[in-house]
UniProtKB/TrEMBL annotation:
This is SEH1-like (S. cerevisiae). Belongs to the WD repeat SEC13 family. One of its GO terms (biological process) is chromosome segregation. Component of the Nup107-160 subcomplex of the nuclear pore complex (NPC). The Nup107-160 subcomplex is required for the assembly of a functional NPC. The Nup107-160 subcomplex is also required for normal kinetochore microtubule attachment, mitotic progression and chromosome segregation. This subunit plays a role in recruitment of the Nup107-160 subcomplex to the kinetochore. It is found in: Chromosome, Centromere, Kinetochore; Lysosome membrane; Nucleus, Nuclear pore complex. Pfam families: WD40. It comes from Oryzias sinensis (Chinese medaka). Its main location: nucleus. The keyword Secreted does not apply. WD repeats lie at residues 8-40, 273-305. GO terms for cellular component: kinetochore; lysosomal membrane; nuclear pore outer ring; Seh1-associated complex.
Length: 414
């Protein structure tokens, strides 16, 4: 069965993002109270706040971890038009605080003229690189030439996307057959402005990133995008959170050996779901790319899985309190997901009562929602019996609360 627990986050305003580290034993939260908190999982399974500090002079939209190969490093971005890099330092033996850790700011990136809406570290095989996107429609890629000196970052690329940017995702493939690639989504609500997802690829000849594809079928505001981990596939899989959940397949077309131009892709939409009956705000893959989690305004996290025919189906529904949902009656049920249960933790942001994801009032047009999903490294491969599709649900009203909570749903095998 699913056991739901809550953690008093003690943020003084709404929580916008939660990020797990590579191992899933640490997490970071950020909030409109301008602070970031770091949580560590104890041996007993309790999440303990081990650090809390003010990071920006505006709402903090996103927080993300670097690969542990580069140390304990965080990056955050904010409405104050900046992104910041933080490193955890452990006190020396002769220090008054020996054995205790504290976070220090290594650098502040101030190139954006508008709100920085997302920040992501590049895959580790590319080195220590950080990407930001902003409401001014510019993606910036920074590199730390010396990983031992995180106070020095150089701006390597500045890419204008022509549309307000809301989210970015790197293709994690480390194959030499796949050049470095990232996708950027736009929350521009004007349908007439065209496709809201653009794909950029690195060209070795020009040493620049160029746009190789625009998903013209995605014309509504995009809230989140996520490339699936690539485990030897010749093609790429991209999940998109917009007014529904969409999964795209990007298959590179064979190029002539003498061709030096940008790659061309055969774009195919392999799945599209409107089961949330509302806006979808987050999508997240498990580490084997066999399971996709999505969250929306219906107050549920839904799990999607493809069968051997590559047909995607809903394999599980979790309500805001962490309990499964019966598709027929809407009542909580006690169910396993295939041969194994949802592993470890599914962390969900809640604001008040039974409501799942609160609206986050952004100072700019449109609202940003802190819909938080299970970390990809903690969702096991599941061979699930299909759960019948849920009935049409009415949108629940949202509530605000000054005391933000984190709802932690843990799956425990009976």
């Amino acid at each position: 069965m699913f056991v739901a627990r809550s953690i008093a986050a003690d943020h003084k305003d709404l929580i916008h993002d939660v990020s797990y580290d590579f191992h899933g034993r640490r997490m970071a939260t950020c909030s409109s109270d301008q602070s970031v908190k770091v949580w560590d999982k104890s041996e007993s399974g309790e999440w303990l706040c081990t650090a809390s500090w003010k990071t920006h002079s505006g709402s903090v939209w996103r927080v993300t971890w670097a690969h542990p190969e580069f140390g304990q490093v965080l990056a955050s971005c904010s409405f104050d038009r900046t992104a910041a890099v933080w490193e955890e330092i452990v006190g020396e033996s002769n220090d008054k605080q020996r054995g205790l850790s504290h976070w220090i700011k290594r650098t502040t990136l101030v190139d954006s003229r508008t709100s920085v809406t997302d920040v992501k570290f590049a895959p580790k095989h590319m080195g220590l690189m950080l990407t930001t996107c902003s409401a001014d429609g510019v993606v910036r890629i920074y590199e730390a030439p010396d990983v031992m000196n995180l106070s020095q970052w150089s701006l390597q690329h500045e890419i204008s996307c022509k549309l307000s940017c809301s989210c970015i995702s790197w293709n994690p493939s480390s194959s030499r057959a796949h050049p470095s690639m990232f996708a950027v989504g736009s929350d521009d609500s004007n349908v007439a402005s065209g496709g809201k997802v653009q794909i950029y690829e690195y060209n070795e000849n020009t040493r620049k990133y160029g746009k190789v594809e625009t998903l013209m079928t995605v014309t509504d505001a995009v809230h989140d995008i996520a490339f699936a981990p690539n485990l030897g596939r010749s093609f790429h899989v991209l999940a998109i959170a917009t007014k529904d959940v969409r999964i795209f397949k990007l298959a590179p077309m064979r190029k002539e050996s003498s061709s030096t131009g940008p790659s061309k892709f055969e774009v195919q939409i392999v799945a599209q779901f409107d089961n949330h009956n509302s806006q979808v705000w987050r999508v997240s893959w498990n580490i084997t790319s066999t399971l996709l989690a999505s969250s929306g305004d219906d107050g549920c996290v839904r799990l999607w899985k493809a069968n051997y025919m590559d047909n995607w189906k809903c394999t599980g529904i979790l309500r805001g309190d962490g309990s499964p949902l019966s598709a027929s009656s809407g009542q909580p049920i006690s169910t396993t997901v295939g041969s194994s249960l949802l592993s470890q933790n599914a962390l969900n942001g809640i604001s008040a009562g039974r409501y799942f994801f609160p609206p986050l009032d952004a100072p700019r047009a449109g609202s940003r929602f802190g819909h938080l999903l299970p970390p990809s490294s903690l969702i096991e491969h599941c061979d699930a019996e299909l759960v019948s599709q849920p009935q049409q649900q009415q949108s629940l009203p949202h509530r605000h609360s000054s005391r933000a909570l984190l709802s932690l749903a843990e799956a425990e095998e009976q």
